[in-house]
Structures are given as C-alpha cells and as structure tokens.
Amino acid sequence: MKHLIHGYREFRATAWPQRRALFEELAARGQKPHTMVIACSDSRVDPTMIFNVGPGELFVVRNVANLVPPYMPDAEFHGTSAALEFGVTVLEVDDLIVLGHGMCGGIRALLDPSLASPDFVGPWMSIANRARDRVLACNPVDPQTACEHEAVKVSLENLRTFPWIAARDADRSLRLHGASFDIRTGVLELLQPDGTFAAA
Fold first, then answer.
1. Alpha-carbon distance 164 to 168, whole Å?
2. Cβ atoms within 10 A of the Cβ of 122, count?
3. What is the pairing mode between strands 187-191 and 197-199?
C-alpha cells in the first residue's frame, strides 16, 4: 500500500495540477464517454493505456475473461449487465468494444476446468462454453488463442440478446466491436467481418 500512496502523492504534485481543469470540467458537466469497453480484470491489460486515452473518454467494465452474460433480468446480481444498461441507455455510448487478450487465465481455466475454483470462476466461465466447444471441435494448433478469440465472439453474440443493444445495433446508433490485445507483443487485433482477427 505504501507505494500506492507514494504514487498518489506524486499524482497530486505533478499530474493533478496539469489536469485540474479537465477534472473540474468532468465534475461540472458529468461524464460523457464515447466508448464502452468490456475488458478482462487481468492486471496486465489496461484499456486506457492500450487506447492511449484520458479521463472521461472510456466507460470500462472489467471482469474475468471479459465475458458478457446473456440477457437475463431476474432477482440475481448482474454487475456486468447493470453496467451495460447504464453505459448504453444512460450514457448512450457510440461504440462498445469487447476486448480480449492473450494469455488469459480465465480462458485457460475454461479449457482446463481443474484450474477453475468452483465457487465463482467455474460457473462464470461457463458463459463461454460455446467458445470452448467450437475450438475443441476444430482442434487448432493454438487452442488458447483460438478460444480467447471465440470468447470475444460469444460475448458479442450475448450483447445482441439485450433488447436495447440489439435495437441500437440494428439502427447503427451503437457500433459493436471485437478486439484482442497480445500482452507479449503489444499488438491489438480487431475482429473482421469474416470472423478472423487482424492487426489494427
């Protein structure tokens, strides 16, 4: 914790004075991010760093393996779905990106269930069972990367089960994107119309 407090004090001494006007403006007018990102909780994958953006530009939701569950309104707790509802219907973002990444531990646990803890990680990763099944049916050379990519596609499919996302996707007032960041090389790949991923 000491190094975090030290970092905060450096931020207050150097970065805050330079960005004070920006934060005051954001406080006065509220947030109006142009893009929402569903990203992994992995500490090595920071969407604001990857996209080189500042405060107020991205509305970011992070969870294990950047998964989007299907639309399922009920009495349970739905953190990711609640954030989607807020970002899409209240903030009215223009773009929504599902950002996967290389060497994802959640995907590794999906491919090898013995690595997943039973209380929460295992059940959560079951959202991406379709991705795992598709990959194993094809027997790719690199199942980890293939499954990371397929999980992004499954999350995009699940996004379209939310009626207020499907409607905006249909009239193009909301644009959905898939992406994957390789932490080993720093390369960002974007999902193409043909289902492949290509460097941005």
1. 6
2. 15
3. antiparallel
Structure-block tokens of residue 68? 């989007």
End-to-end CA distance of the chain: give it in Å, rounded: 37
Both tokens of residue 3? 């190094």
The domain limits of the chain are 1-30, 31-199
Q: Determine the Cα–Cα distance for residues 178 and 38; give it in Å rounded to an integer.
A: 10
Element (H, E) at 100: strand 95-101
Which distant-in-sequence residues (6+ apart) come within 8 Å of 127 by Cβ? 67, 68, 69, 70, 154, 158
State pLDDT tens for residues 5-47.
999 999 999 999 999 999 999 999 999 999 999 999 999 999 9
Instruction: Report the distance separating Cα 118 and Cα 158, nearest Å.
Output: 23
Q: Are strands 175-182 and 187-191 parallel, antiparallel or unpaired?
A: antiparallel
C-alpha 57/C-alpha 52 separation (Å) is 10
Over the range 61-76, which residues count as b (16 or more CB within 10 Å of their CB) and which as e?
Answer: bbbbbbbbbebeeeee
Which pTM does this prediction carry? 0.94
The domain made up of 31-199 has a fold known as Beta-carbonic Anhydrase; Chain A (3.40.1050)
